[in-house]
Amino acid sequence: MKLVQAKDYDDMSRKAANLLAAQVVLRPESVLGLATGGTMLGLYGRLIEYYRQGDLDFGQVRTVNLDEYVGLQPTDAQSYAFYMRENLFDGINIRPEATHLPSGIAADVEAECAAYEALIQDLGGIDMQLLGLGPNGHIGFNEPADAFPVATHQIELSESTRQANARFFSRPEDVPTRAITMGIGTIMQARRIVLCVSGPAKAEALRRVMTGPVDPRVPGSVLQLHPQVTVIADREACSLLPNL
Ligand code: F6R
What we know:
- By secondary structure, the protein is of the alpha/beta class.
- 31% of the residues lie in helices and 17% in strands.
- It is built from 7 helices and 10 strands.
- It has a 7-stranded parallel β-sheet with strand order 1-10-9-6-2-3-5, covered by helices on one side. Strands 4-8-7 form a 3-stranded antiparallel β-sheet, with helices on one face.
- Helix 7 (203-211) links the parallel strand 9 and strand 10.
- Helix 1 crosses helix 2.
- The longest helix is centred in the N-terminal third of the chain and has 18 residues, at 9-26.
- Fructose -6-phosphate is lined by residues 35-39, 66-67, 132-134, 138-141.
């Protein structure tokens, strides 16, 4: 894992946006794996700026998102489909039909998971996957568990993750209890991975991801086994790493 230390959230966002931008410049038809959450807002804002300045063209880019809540319509303001339109897709020239998220309202969730996994293969796999990190070490919505889940699957969200995400909902009880997420195997097949981490609340998780044993109870630790991972983390997130 290559660690790039950033000064703060803004610096992390710029560095991550620059890596994504380079990927799109070098391979305009890239398949980008995208994430949601607070960590990504700054970098998506930058990508929109680059597009507006005429520096980036998303006309051939395809995207697949990591996850979606089960039970939320794509028009629901808390759905990840809505987040992506609001914070990235509506600000750039990506073709709507080239953007993909798991459907949270599929009647047959198992079939939806299998179809999503097949879609990623059909697109030729993910060129660059963006990841945030949960305070409990989760990536996507792969929560701490006894084993690494391989493929796209449905998951029961942990209480700590529901609490961490409650800030996006008007009432804590509105946070869905289930989500569909790419599996660890899906993520690990991406050709390159960029993990973005910001703030003191993630410091312990980042320490365990980077220096602890590979352990499904810290799902992000599996990234130690991937040959092309860049971690972009700000000073606060790096505060518990040794020798920094
Ligand atoms: C979001 C996702 C999650 C988040 C993580 C960090 O699509 O897959 O793993 O990246 O929960 O969330 P924030 O950035 O809100 O701290």
